[in-house]
Amino acid sequence: MDFTAFFNQEVFTIGEITIKLGRLIFVTVGVIFLYILGFMLLRSWLERFFLYEDTTDKQKNRVRRLTTICLILIASLIILLGLQADFAISSLDESPLSKIKLSTFIQAFLIYFIARLVDELLSSVLTHRYQQRREQQLQEGGLYQLQGGSSQIRVSHIVQPIVYLLALTFIIQQLGLDISISDFLPWTNPENAGLITINRILSAILILLVTRLILWVLTEIVLYPYYKQKEINVGSQYAINRLLTYFVLLIAIIGTLQYVGINLTVLMGGAAALLVGIGLGLQQTFNDLICGIILLFERTVEVGDIVDMNDLVGTVKKIGIRTSLVETRDNVSVIVPNSKLVADNVINWSHFDSKARFRVGVGVAYGSDTALVKGILLEAAEKHTRIVRRPKPFVRFVNFGDSSLDFEILFWTRDLLGIEDVKSDLRFAIDKAFREANISIPFPQRDLWIKQAPPSFDKSDE
């Protein structure tokens, strides 16, 4: 039997398109195989994925719908290309659409919907894993917040631009819309004239976005087990992550500019001349920038530390490249220039140890039992739950005052930010115990002597 003649038999004709038996069989087998694959994907593989990743019903329906659309578009491509039934959009030879065929549009739509499907699956997986690890960090007390409480970056915000930009690059390539823009950029390298195209610009942006995703994976997933194993505090974690971010981004930006074809020599020369002109005006800004780098390397002040600057007490939430964010006891965010943290006197309560010593003073009336006063003060401190047991609190007899015997109760606590509440609780407890023990807290007393003038004698009375 002649199989060549058998497969070359003409089955039917549509316009100028002739459908042969061999191609019809090939397309039929391809569509059946795609149907079986789609059935297994929708009914088995996706269901296991949904069960493992704990997705919502809305996400499940969206993934199923996108998968079905992708399968339909793939089947359309198999039919068009398999039967050689692809045709141009325009029949006019001079029209720019004459070079674009129907399969090109189908491929563009397919790329778009695949991008949406990948975004949905990848974002759901990474977001779910990210949230799980965040909850674990919260339970272990090892969570730091890069921008305070409101800036926990969702993974989808990183993945989505990469996926859609990649899809846009493929679509532009498929539709033949990749044009050169070198003539409109005077700072480009003459050797690369004509090489700076739309796709190169999009690829450069894609490189930066991929760099951002790599940084996220490094800082949030790869380095986390190392931090946990070495028991590195959150401030050091933050400093390492920021320095790594700055270094990798700098390398990525330089490489991206080189890839696009921008002449870095011209840019560096212009930047040098510009810096000379505005250096004096931005002297303080550059000072803050350098101080930010010093803080990250020196780590005298770290994220999570409790600092006291000119009676401003708060927790360091962020150390940026120019400014730092300090959150006060009143939940107020104060933006502090980095130079203030480097040049000024800053009290760092949690620099070397997680606890610090504080004191509460009190005066009692002369004649009071000093041993009883000491016992009451120690008992009040030992009963407080936020005062540590080691080192033990102790009482100091400070002075014989003008109208009172002055004492101090000294204690250690880890509740550095809420120390005023601890002191207030101690004063309440001391006042109550003194009243029960009939120990009075005197107030200043003064004796006033009025000196009378001597009687005067008038000569007229004689």
Descriptive report:
This protein is of the alpha+beta class and 462 residues long. The chain folds into three domains: 7-90 and 98-225, no CATH class; 279-348, SH3 type barrels (Roll), CATH 2.30.30.60; 356-436, Alpha-Beta Plaits, CATH 3.30.70.100. 55% of the residues lie in helices and 14% in strands. It is built from twelve helices and eleven strands. It has helices at residues 3-7, 21-53, 57-82, 102-140, 156-175, 198-230, 234-260, 264-278, 283-298, 338-343, 370-383, 419-436, and strands spanning 10-14, 17-20, 146-149, 306-309, 312-319, 323-328, 333-337, 347-348, 356-364, 394-400, 405-413. The chain has a five-stranded antiparallel beta sheet. A hairpin with a 4-residue loop joins strand 6 (323-328) and strand 7.
The gist of it:
By secondary structure, this protein is of the alpha+beta class. Helix content is about 55%, strand content about 15%.
